[in-house]
Design goal:
Blueprint lengths: L1 E3 L2 E7 L2 E2 L6 E5 L2 E9 L5 E7 L2 E2 L6 E3 L3 E5 L9 E8 L2 H7 L7 E8 L4 E5 L14 E5 L6 E3 L21 E2 L1 E9 L4 E3 L8 E10 L15 E2 L6 E2 L15
Parallel strand pairs: 4-18
Antiparallel strand pairs: 1-2, 2-3, 2-5, 5-9, 5-10, 6-7, 6-8, 6-11, 10-16, 11-18, 12-13, 14-17, 15-18, 19-20
Length: about 250
């Protein structure tokens, strides 16, 4: 769990909150994961997320209501459905195909709280108009910003950090996030006012393999090419046989 300025960010995998150590989280290669984001302020917060240097919200932002949390489990290519986040090993074949990027394995969460509403009291000069009494007027100076996707999930509970998932003979290595299975997580539009200066949380994802992990599975002639590693798969394949990326 990473806590910064009343904002919490954690990685969930297999229904468990993974323990963070030195801003790093270890999870098994080939697993799907999600981001649990919690706003502990009494104001809305605007959130942007980038994974491996890619904007997974595709130009949108998330709005989390005051004292609420949300779980982001997929790429936000549209408002109704998309692919889940899947963490795979960054093999030499993947590096040769897509390059070795400095942001690989990094989850960058930028957040900015809504500015506090400033109340100003305006005093009118009533001496110039003795026949008309104009009392002091109180108004709120607040500008509404642009419409952005919002996912509301009200909860007052603070996430409890669980233990890491245990696997036989773990080995830590570098990985990247690719498209996983289909998710029907829904989003809608909302509004937020002017924002304060933003802050950033960065979490490093590290992979873990088991002794039964097959480094180079046997492949066959295919018609589909994997966007992550370039491996060809059968035309009816759902996932890449090399790295597990969703091909649909």
């Amino acid at each position: 769990m990473v806590y910064h300025e009343k904002f919490v960010a954690v990685i969930k995998c297999g229904g468990q909150i993974l323990r963070e150590q030195n801003n790093s989280v270890t999870l098994p290669f080939g697993s799907e994961y999600s981001l649990l984001l919690k706003n502990m302020e009494s104001r809305k917060v605007n959130v942007n997320v980038a994974i491996d240097g890619q904007d997974v919200l595709f130009g949108n932002s998330l709005i989390i209501e005051p004292n609420s949390e949300m779980e982001l489990e997929r790429f936000l290519e549209n408002m109704s459905q998309g692919n889940r986040f899947k963490f795979i090993q960054k093999t030499r074949k993947i590096v040769d195909h897509r390059g070795d990027k400095i942001d690989d394995g990094l989850v960058r969460i930028e957040f900015a709280f809504e500015q506090k509403v400033v109340q100003e009291q305006v005093h009118r000069n009533i001496h110039a108009y003795p026949w008309y009494y104009l009392p002091s007027v109180t108004y709120c100076n607040s500008n509404i910003g642009e419409s952005v996707p919002v996912f509301n999930y009200s909860s007052t509970a603070v996430p409890t950090v669980g233990s890491n998932i245990n696997f036989t003979a773990p080995a830590i290595d570098e990985g990247i996030t690719v498209k996983g299975s289909q998710s029907n997580q829904q989003f809608c539009c909302g509004y937020i006012g002017n924002l304060e200066q933003s802050s950033v949380i960065i979490i490093k994802l590290k992979g873990m393999t088991a002794t039964s992990y097959v480094d180079k599975p046997i492949t066959v002639k295919t018609k589909l090419r994997c966007p992550s590693c370039g491996t060809k798969s059968k035309s009816n394949a759902q996932f890449c046989s090399e790295c597990g990326t969703n091909l649909r």
